[in-house]
Amino acid sequence: MQLAGGHVAVTAPNDITRVASVGAKACHERARDALAIEYRTKHDPPRLGLAALPNCLFGRIDGTKAIIPSPLSHQRTALLGANPHRSAPAGLQADGLACERALDLLSQGNGAPIRTAPGDAPRVRGYGLYWQLVSLSPAARGCPWDVQSARPRRDSLSVGNRTANLCRGRDLGSHRVSDVSLRSIRQTEIDMAPVRSPTPIAAAACLLASVASAGSLKDIDHVVLFMQENRAFDHYFGSMAGVRGFKDANLQMNGNVPVWKQKTSPALTTETDYVNPWYLNYLGGSWPEATQCMSAGSNGWYENHAAWNFGSNDHWAMNNTPWSIGFYKKQDIPTQWALAENWVIGDMYQVGDRQASARVVTDMFLTDLQESVVASTNPNRVSWISGSINAPGSPQKPDEGGNPYIDNNETPGCERGGINCYPLKWKTAAEYYEDAGVSWQVFQDADNFDDNPFAWFKQFQDAPKGSSLYTRGMQGLPLNTFYEQAASGTLPEVSYIVGPMQLSEHTPYSPHDGAWLQDKIARAVLDSPKYNKTVLMISYDETGGWWDHLDPYRSPDGTPGEWIDDPWGQVGHTFIGPGFRLPFYIISPWTRNGGVYTEHIDHNSQIMFIEKWQAAKGRNVTTDEMVHWRREHMADLVGAFDFANPDYSIPNLPFAPEPHRNANGDYDGSSYCQSRNPKTRPPVPYTGDGVIKDIASVVEPGFKSVRGKITEGRYLVFEMDGYALTNPGRCRPDGGATVTKVSKGHARDLQRWIVHAVQIGGDDFTLESAVDNRFICAGGKMCKDKQDAIVFTLGFEPSKGHTIKSKASSKYVSVADKKLTLEGSLSHWATFSVSY
């Protein structure tokens, strides 16, 4: 819940031991008032969520009481102290502006708050919850307050005809209140305590400020881009609940053989024809440490394309290595999982460039974030900062370098055939920022693993010392300066972070060591006084020879800038990318507890996000260098954000141990690990206990809320007004699709659906029940024949949810009077991706 000059962070019971502290010292010095909300579900004991000024979360939990340290307020009650009639502390006057706008909405035209009789008091409502408004302090100029109490039964505070949401999309213990819960099952309303003065109306008006001044891209002041090295999505997150991983609802079948089964050869084993994905630490013992510094496969052009096998994606063991299909679980990389699960994870992010045969273009599968190029580090990092590798048909001229740039060539000139020409000469995104007056900066130490892509462009190489391109792009600033600027709230608008070699997560460098760097960067952002205006995006450049099970989403053959004839003559006519999926997550108040973002994205998406963000601020930084198909078919990430409902709470993050250092103080985690573990590659389980016969069995049970346009690959639950779209079940074989009450954890199997895209990359789908494989057909009946299935257009509006529209009738599937209906107006569903 957002207030003018204050906010509430509702903390789940299992995560309440540390409320949080963001810039705590500064906030303690200036804060005097606070707000506390007690909540209870029928499953949980009462708890308190506590917050004060923007970016400042305080307090500790003592039983069911929130205790506020003395610098914050005077403890006048056992629950929460209050200092009535106090205005904003000095230095916080700007935070009162939103409150004043809200007061204007409720004024009589002269700026004076409306005076109301007790019977006109605002009502507070809630869905299946017990809320206790213990005390209210807007902490904003012109907004005095009194302590009031309310016991609501729905989830909004209403004053007049305007409403401020209290718990949209929040996790409240074991009970989730979703966006569509605003029209709740329980409609009982209980009035607030009688109002004896106009001050509660002023306070209520401050609650409305977040609605009156709805959040948007303009609220962002800083975007931090941090790219790590060489990991694939399934390798890190295949066993995660609610993502398109090892429980793929639209699994690729090669004939009657699932893509999990990777072909072997007599050179590998004579015991089996296939090897399944396997858990790297299946043997236990010291292997969890040893596999941290193991290497698997190759990220080379030929090895990756040969493993892809013209779309069958089943030659990874044969043409890369059988270790390539090994994966970690949550306990092996807890920091990466915590950052991904506590904010929003993109499970369709693809590597920037990848080459493949045209043989199976008609048999594509939807994917998560993809590498931009099915190739090595340099081409993907170049895509990350410029939007192109200058493949034929790209906006660049052939003499601007690359032509295309598909390998890590840093030798001046071109390779045979006129390819991989170096240095590169086209305009980078940062130069567009420079032209528009957008501040930007590379942060890197002396050891940057040669991962700074600006250094591969001629204009940066030739930039005079002291010039902006040189100091910002080539030289950069140390990582310690990033931490200092984050702490002081003085980061540039756009930051690029390039980590050192040992912390890059590139094999054989440890995911644990990389986790320490991720944790340090994330905490710098979270502890910053500007966290409420900052976005941190963490991505990986390419897969590094690790396997992902999805056949990449790509352009039609012949698309300019996307297809080439393999210059090495190894894989024939092929596409540049996007390639295999990569880990990707976004940390910000607008992505907190955001679940899974399901749109097609790649490295270009980060550029497009900054373009949209700066356009919202009135600046044009649109690059002319991006390949047109990418701009049209990769998403801009805006749908991953819920600007209407920011969540400033900070979760408990796992401890990330500092990497080992040698006697000189240099990081040496990989060599130290290898010295302790002479063998870092475990034996491949072709047979025996390590074989996973049912790969879906390794997926953690649970769910994630869904953001973004719908894509295939998940088991989805659609909910509205406390009801879920439901298969009528085997007992009613002739019945039509219906709605039934939502289930705890969205776990009821009859409410589980699989979507099938009519055209890859489009918004039209058929809906199949996960229980009996029947489709929703004419008249809402359930039928077996996919050809008879109704085609639905699935839409998405950030902060509102998904829409389901019948393509034939152009009417929207909705819930009215506890029944499934078709309506002429928009109705939004809360969508969840479940893994049970």
From TrEMBL:
Domain of life: Eukaryota
Keyword terms, alphabetized: Hydrolase
Signal sequence, renumbered to the chain: none
A Pfam cross-reference name: Phosphoesterase
Location of the region described as Disordered in the Swiss-Prot/TrEMBL record: 387-412, 668-687
A molecular function GO annotation: phosphoric ester hydrolase activity
The keyword tRNA-binding belongs to this UniProt entry's keyword annotation: no
InterPro entries per record: Alkaline_phosphatase_core_sf (IPR017850), Phosphoesterase (IPR007312)
CDD domains: PLC (cd16014)
Protein name: Extracellular phospholipase C
